[in-house]
Amino acid sequence: MADLISDHNGVSWEWRNESTQKPPKQVIFLREAGADKVLKAAYEHTAVIWQGDFHQAKQVLAAIKKRLRRPAKTGGDIQTAFHTHRMQQAQQSRILNMLAVEIDCGFQLSLPRAPDVKAALADVYETENTRPFLLPLNQLLGFIGAHEWHKKGIDLPQLNGKIHVPFGVFSPLRGEYLDLIAQAPINGFQTAFDIGTGSGVIAALLAKRGISHITATDTNPRAIRCARANFQRLGCAQQVTLTETDLFPAGKADLIVCNPPWLPAKPTSTIETALYDPDHAMLKAFLNGVSKHLNDNGEAWLVISDLAEHLHLRNNSFLTDCFQTASLEIIDTLHTRPAHKKAADPADPLAFARSQETTFLYRLRTCSS
């Protein structure tokens, strides 16, 4: 998101922020300041634009993070604990984003000891800037880290290859759901839809498993560009057609796969739309519309975890009720336990729920009349 804000001289600046946060009310330019001074300004809705040494700015940011760090709350209502956790995340993110830097034309960062950030910013933004803009330092560091991961790629044994993911596209670091897709029987299917393809990892896996004609859909232009590049790298571009559309493309397929957001909560940034979906809107739309796009004897695969049940964000009968409403029946259910780091981290605020989480692949078909 981009907004216009003013400094104390009334000069307007473009403020860029990948979250849905409101911009600061004003900005001040400082060559040096301690964490306490930056925090005081942040609580007054004023952003500090750092003009001094880059590494010192990183130290100040680290000190602010340390001051904002709060111990996880235990006990009480589980659903309230989740929403409290989300609220604290949003508040801390807003405060951290009040320490910013000026990005000059051509994605240049003109601070002492600053790294070359041009490639990292080009990964995020489609076109080079012809005017300076202001950017939270915490987000810039995130862009730099994401750019390095984008170059390196993520090794996925299910693909016997790598997926490369830029900032703004959900990364398939949790590989357990890919194990389920690799194990589910293909049953001679030749056509498939991958709904909400993101990085393209599911479509690529279906191609590797021998499905000859796959249509992958997404509404995020970054995801479309990312998936296209991954299909080229993995040698499956001839098998996959990319379509920028919401949910289903035109026509029907033997197999339709969807890995929707798993938690019914409000996202605070574009990338969080892969994790949070208010009132399970995408999940319901997929289930209610999938029968119209399935060929005879076709299957719909729904990949989803039960973390929302353990967080008391939906009841245990929610999914089966949705299947019944959509006139879908379960052929089989595959499941696995998560192996990612958060699942075994007792310091994680949601450890009480993550320790019980199971990831499922539901094989569904249209109910016979």
TrEMBL record:
Domain Methyltransferase small span(s) in chain numbering: 188-310
The keyword NADP is assigned to this record: no
Single GO BP term: methylation
Keywords: Methyltransferase, S-adenosyl-L-methionine, Transferase
A Pfam match: MTS
GO molecular function annotations of the record: methyltransferase activity
CDD domains: AdoMet_MTases (cd02440)
KW Lipoprotein (keyword) present: no
PANTHER family in UniProt: HEMK METHYLTRANSFERASE (PTHR18895), MTRF1L RELEASE FACTOR GLUTAMINE METHYLTRANSFERASE (PTHR18895:SF74)
Entry protein name: Class I SAM-dependent methyltransferase
Species, as recorded: Neisseria lisongii
